[in-house]
Fold this protein.
Amino acid sequence: METVLYTAAMVVLWVLNLVKGTGLGQTYNVLGITKLLCVAVAVVCAMRKIRRERPLRTNRQEFFTVLLMGVVFIGSSLSHGSQTDAFDYLWTYLLVFILSETRPTRSALLLTGLAYAVMGLVVLTAYTYTDILKGWDGNSVAMVGLNSFLIFLVPYFGIRNVRSKLILIGAGIIFGILFWQTNSRSCILAAAVTLLLFFGILPTRGLLASQRMQLVMLLVPLFVAAFVAILTSAWDLAALDAWSMENFNKPIFNGRDQVWVEGFRLLGNNHWFGTGNINAGYWHNSALACLTAFGLVGYSLWTNLFRICLAHGIPYRKDPCTAGLMVAFTVIVLQQSVELGLMASNPNILPYAILGILLGRINLLREEL
């Protein structure tokens, strides 16, 4: 029964994430309702936690990182007149906290993953073969599918059964074909890399066992943006653009190179605490989105918080679900080198759901020891 209830709650979360940015979502203020719901549930969870744990156990590094990040984000937004920009993003950590207070079993993650895969395929199919989602952005639809696919894969990390592998490969091919129809190269690559990591074809030991490697992976979006900005400033990319136009009908970086150059210019004028405005530009890169909004200080705290969360999983990396969640979140961060959603005033909440599920799974394993 608990498995069914957990899955039902996660399905509701998936639906809210899907519709909150649509016309229907705006009409019924789904985003506002989701925020209020998260606040209410977080208060209840906090009260239960206080009653259950006396004295209250907290990770000092995690606590001060969250506190300082909140102060920097809110202070930067308010000081630059951006009003609620920081609040519009920071509420996602209430969702992380709520899900960290759940105790997801493998059966719950299996059923949730299956439900997410079905819903992701329905949305991708509806976008590709019908007019139901006419006008929706292809990359946004592909991101819905990718997040659904990653959560579906979570319980199967390190699977050795040949039949199960063939099923996962088949699912990956179906998702890949539908991703191709949305013209999202990043989602195709992310899905393929995830399967290779889950099957052990690509190494995961460093990612699962080393905080240093985890930090390097979290910094990849910054490295990508910096490399491309330097490359486009130093060389003429006309030949690469021509090749990409011939094969993908769009330039090699699809305009992101110029956007990233502008992002670094903006950062240079507001390097410590940013502009306080998450909506300053469509950066298509999570690192630049955070840097331009909250500066080097905010970005350092933001990245460090992700590192702390992933580091909690290191002692439990032999649990397939924990390892799968760590890999899934890392793949999303890598994919956000070229996409929107992780850092935004209306963020994609499924990556934060993965982070919360990871912490909840770790808590379950701790209690079972």
In short: The two ends are 24 Å apart (CA to CA). Residues 2-368 form one domain. The chain is about 75% helix and 0% strand.
